[in-house]
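To: structure subgroup
Subject: Chain for Friday's discussion

All,

I'm putting the inputs and outputs inline so they're searchable in the archive.
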Amino acid sequence: MAVAMVTTAVEQTPTIDEPVYVASAEVYLKERSFRYNPEHPPLGKLIIASGLVFTDAHLDADFVGSQTALGRHVLYESGNDPARLMLYARLPVIVLTLLFGLVVLAFARDLTGPPGGLVALALYAFSPDVIANGSLATLDVPATGFLLTALWLLWRARRRPLLCLPLAGVALGAAAATRMSVLPVIPVLMLLGVLSYWHARRTPGPEPRTPGPEPRTPGPEPRTPGPEVRTPGPEVRAPEPDTRTRPPRLDTRARIGLLAYGAVAAVGMAVIAVAVVWATYLVVDPRMRWAAPENVPDIRGTRGTVAAWLPFPEAYRDGMRIQFGFEYDIWQGFLFGRLYEGSLWYYLPAALLVKTPLGALALWTAGSVAMLAVRALRPAVPYVLVPAAVLLAIAMHGARDLGVRYAVFMPMLLAVAAAGVTLWRRRPVHWATAALVCLVAVSSLRTYPYYLPYSNEAFGGPSKTHLRLHDSNVDWGQDLGRLADHLDRRHPGERVWLVYKGAGVPSYYGIDASDPLRAPLGEVHGLLVVSDSAVAKADGRLAALLDTSTPIDDVGHSITVFRRR
């Protein structure tokens, strides 16, 4: 997984979101200000900044412009090396992604034992979606990984609540300080905190050894001298001691008291999470200087009330208002060849069906069934399946159908759930599990190093993904450098017309191209190079150009090269 992510990080040019995060992180380091990109909290960008401190990048203190323009300026107009900057920005996220793999291993091992832990780790390590997003300087994997860590610690709090509940609060605060999309699931985690505390206090731990003589070890009883005395009546065999741990029965008053203490523990966990969010803002600017930008919308109703009353910094709450404003915008989506406006409730399940390895889909399903069917695993359902279902339901009702990165929690949480198949004590099940894990590995290795446009074999593989999905599922601007190499190698000296969707600057990579949308149709001859997301949304002039062109090649399964005569 490390090799795949580092290779991807080296070969890919900046995706659409990355320059904004990198530039904002530089502003954190140089100016101690969070005025750029307020719609996302600081922690994810502080993680990115931990790599950028080694680059000594130049930042123009007099720059005035939008955050998109700032990203372009920092990478391409300030004398910095964009490839070096992007690699150093991506490396901390890669390291964090690998560490979250250890959390997957530990969580699944706690539930099912070492074999289940290895199954979960294998599914995580070979997941194309996790590799693709974990190798970018973005916020999706860090936020989800912190949330996964909080759920694991809540599970362990069933045994050690005094240690694990505060740590779960720290992890939950880290998730909320990285992306605001985790906020709706916080009540679920607070309920899990109550449940863990209840279980910990109702289930007795190992009995402490009391002072006195050691218990007699099994063996022949020493005979005392004299005749053996038998009591009248039949011989009664002493019952076997019950070694099972049974929680004591509690009366109503004791239950109410235990629930009250559990609620206090859950509130304490939430307070710690809030403190972590505040700490991330204080790290950036201890004086908490903030002036609301002009693009903060006036949000009314329930959302506005939530943004006004949450105990977070004003900059965080203004960021929430910006995010709520995005939800009121009309976005274009593309699914199975259909271009539409708005969002489809079934978009994410359909996209996950396309972009998840077939073996992983089978193991996710079998593992989820096992968690519901195997009695020993049922207590883990609220910690694994319920958060996944809640997060998916929330994401399905979002306004932006832009990629499975909005559901990257699925390959993480369901990898843990898949470990449940190892508790079925039947040899054919074990052989089938091993075969499916190998199938996932083969499918993942076959797409190397093009993980972003991955789709499984049932949908034609990475080369066909653009026929069914768009945007960050396929083409996020990551292949501009590969396009430059392709044109130099295969089409030197030819006239190039380019429609590029991305944050990179083509001329920086040596691509001398013209815009075909600004020239008369009759003048557009030679190579027509179009990002696949632009192909998916083509209408009017671009559609006319594509109808009279012939596809001859593709670059990275995200850019199509046409010839127009």
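Points worth raising on Friday:
Residues 206-222, 226-244 have pLDDT under 50 and may be disordered.
DSSP finds 21 helices and seven strands in the chain.

D.
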